[in-house]
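Box S1 | Example of a co-folding query
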Amino acid sequence: MVPTDELLIEDRGPARWITLNRPDRLNAIAPDGWDGVREAIEAFEASEQRVMVLTGSGRGFCAGADLTPTDISHLVEGGGVETMKTVGRAAQALHDVSKPTIAAVNGVAAGAGMNMALGCDIVLGSPDARFTEVFVRRGLTVDFGGSFYLPRHVGLQRAKELSMTGRVVDAHEALRIGLLLEIVEDLPTRAQELAETIAANAPLGLASVKANMNASFQRTLAEALEAEGAAQVVCFGSSDMAEGVAAFGEKRSPRFTGA
Ligand code: T3D
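Box S1 (continued) | Returned holo structure for T3D
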């Protein structure tokens, strides 16, 4: 992908950190920025890194789409269809990543920025984390997968309330209603620690855990058991299972390779 000042990419041990970097606009995404987000996610998928951490520079996580351009002609006269395909491709790329993803929400997450956080597997927040499905306040409707993710996090009624009011949820309420897994004072340290803990586990097992958990609300128990069984058979045949069992017997930490 093309490196850009607006999207910082850094590998810290096994973790790939992607930092949205337009701090003066609370990391709002410019109209031509969605492809960069998608490409950064796809580059992580293709990389050796085992866990992705998504965060923002400065005091914001991501304020959604950049509302600065006064010329919105790219959104009307049919152009909006292409814009939304681009937004959708970025959201789909995030959902499709086979490896674990962590959102480190360091400040406000608004609109598509909120839903980008919810599209990650685990959402950690600083005490300054705030969330708003701001769309209806701007004459818009929920996008970037919010109608998919939000009911899964907070239940259908709360999802509708948050989306219909656009109100701002602070970190403590976000923790209480299930938007956040944890509030932590030292967010980068905790996000890295969690990334390293996850990255120490077997990649094949992690990938099928993620895929099967993501599919859980669309499956019957019988279908879930079938998918778990098929994934477990793949793990049975892996070098990593042999390594995991050997390491247990030898009372040492396993060294998983993903094979
Ligand atoms: O076009 C497409 O790509 C379609 C996709 C649409 C999906 C969407 O995400 S629509 C939703 C767009 N986002 C918003 O409506 C959020 C707008 N921002 C806010 O409502 C507030 O800024 C926040 C609630 C997020 C935070 O409030 P606060 O008081 O902490 O900060 P602030 O003072 O409002 O903002 C600080 C600066 O960031 C300010 O600039 P200034 O005055 O210091 O020069 C503000 O204009 C700028 N900023 C904040 N959000 C955006 C932004 N600049 C551009 N775009 C933004 N979205």
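The chain is about 45% helix and 15% strand. The chain has a mean pLDDT of 96.
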